[in-house]
Amino acid sequence: MGDAALFRNLETFARELxxxxxxxxxxxxxxxxxxxxxxxxxxxxxxxxxxLMPGLAGRRRRPGEPPPPCGKPGCNRPARTRGYCQTxxxxxxxxx
Length: 96
Ligand SMILES: [Zn+2]
What we know:
The chain is mainly alpha-helical. It has helices spanning 2-39, 86-94.
């Protein structure tokens, strides 16, 4: 029957359409990437962001690693969140 041939034509059409769309997408992404590269340096070369909080390491501590001291001057408690002890973290959180 002609149905099988029609189906095969449709399948070929769909596959080629998909390939064409995929190529267009890749080309558009590449063009956007080039445009971005002209205006802004790649993230690796961008200046690193300054630390938000004193004592904030920017990473999770390993288990057993001693916590840094609280970032609040005069506070001797170990930092727990964002470089502050629990008390001063809550103060900082409420002052935002
Ligand atoms: Zn504190």
